[in-house]
Each structure stands twice: as C-alpha cells, then as structure tokens.
Amino acid sequence: MDRAKDTTKSTPFVRHLCGSSPSAGTCLSSSDTHCSRGTRRNLAAQIFGILHSLAFNIRNRLVCTKLRIRCWKNAHLHDVMRSKKTKPAGPREPHEMTELAVRACLVASDAAFNIKDFLVNSSRVALLAVRDCERELDRIEQQIDQQLPAAIAQVTEVEARELLACLRFSTDLERIGDLLWGVGQRVNNLRSPLPRQDSGQLIEMVEILERMLQQVREGFSKRELDPAGDVLREDREIDQAYKNLVRRHLQVAENASLPHSADVLLMAQALERAGDHATNLAEELFRLIQGRSLRHTPKKRLHD
User: Fold this and answer.
1) Does residue 176 contact residue 111 with C-beta atoms inside 8 Å?
2) Tens digits of per-residue pLDDT, 86-127?
3) Which end of the chain has fewer surrounding CB within 10 Å, N or C?
4) Domains of the chain
C-alpha cells in the first residue's frame, strides 16, 4: 500500500519525461518505469553532447580569434615596416656644427661691415665690434674642433662630409677674422688719417670681401652653387684692386714718400689674403654639393 502511494506520487514527473500528459486515476506500470529510466539516460546523453559540442565550438572560436589577432598584428607590422621603407625622406634637421658654421659666416660678414665703417667714419664702436667678431670666430672654431671627433663617428658618409666642411669653414673664417682685426689695429695705430685715395681703395677691397662672405653664407645655407661661382669671379676683382694699389705705390719714384705707404700695402695684402680664404670657402661648397674638389685648380680655370 505504501509502495503504491509512492509510485502514484512520482507518476506525473515520470510521464512528463515520457512525453505523455498525466491523467487522473492512472497507475505507473513496470513498462512506464523502464521508459522513464531510459528517457533519463537519453536526456543526460543529449545534454552531455550539447555541452561537449558547445565547449568544442567555444574552444575553436577562441583559437580562431587568437589566430586572427596574430595575423592582424603581423599585417600591421608589415605595413609599418613597408611605410618606413617607402616613406620619402623629409628635410633633415641641420647638425649643431652646421648651424655654427653658418653663424661663423654671418659673424665674418659683420666684421667686414664694421671694418668698412671704421675706415669710413673712424668709429670706435665699429673697431670694438671687429674685435668681438674676431673673438666669436675663435670660440666657434674651438667648439667645432672639440666636437668633431665624437660627432663624425656617429653619422653617415654624407653627413661626415658636411661636418668636415664645417671644420674647414670655421678655420678659414677664423683666419679672415684675424686678418680684419689686424687691419683695424693697424689703422687705429696710425698717427694721422689715411690719404683719401688709399682709404678709397681699401674700402673697395673690403666691400668686395663683404659680398664674397655673404654669398658664401647663402650658398652654404641653401646648398646652391651659383653664389659660390660669384665668389670665384669676385676673387679676381679683389686681386685686381690689390694690384692697382700696389702698382700705384711703386710706379713713381716719389711714391716712396707717400705717408703710411708700408701700412697701406700691408693692409691691402691682408684684405687680399682674406679674399683668398673666402675663395677657399667657395671651393669647399663645390666639394660639398658636387662631391668634387676644386683645390689646386688654376685661378683662370676657376674664374671661367
């Protein structure tokens, strides 16, 4: 009687698993009990199969996602490397020593301008400015000379050629500063003013030198050869002015009694040598831009 009651209580759940709706007043037979057990096993197997399939699909999706992410990263890295190789090189920032060399050109031009002002107006301020320019050129040459060994070991061949040009620029410009300062000191030590004709010819030579230095700075800053060609042509002009002055002092016998003749000739020689240094800078521009040296080339061929 107790067993019948227990079976009756479990009937609705078992019949529901078998797919039949429970009806009132019916009893659970032995075949129904067997059916309910088989259905439970089938249901558990189905659930296990679904869970296993779901877990397998999830694992496959994760693996595929990881592979896709890896492919995206590799593709992105490939694009980045290809863009770096094909990207056109932009303007390179000038090296610190290149900026120093350009500054030295500007300082030398200022020294020539001030020596001309001193010859024209006897300005004490102009003479002091020439002295300051000479000291600044000394400082720039010393700085480039100290920094060059370490800098040239860390650059490419093209950049090394540029750094060597900066060294040569600083050397020639420092020498120009010394020559102009020497001219200023010699004029300042004269006890009487220079004759007008002598001062006029010296001023002419200084003006030519000033133009040469400005053209050197322009050519070096813009990497252009036209200003360098102008410097080579104007070197002939400063040489001719120097020859005219020397010829005038030596042509007539009474010229030996001209006041300050020796000082004038020495100042003219210094300005002519400063022009030669400016010509060296123009030749250095040809070597830097075209890769060929014009040194030891006859002046006639250079001017042509």
Assistant:
1) yes
2) 444 444 566 788 999 999 999 999 999 999 999 999 999 999
3) N
4) 2-19+30-76 (no CATH), 96-303 (1.20.58.220)
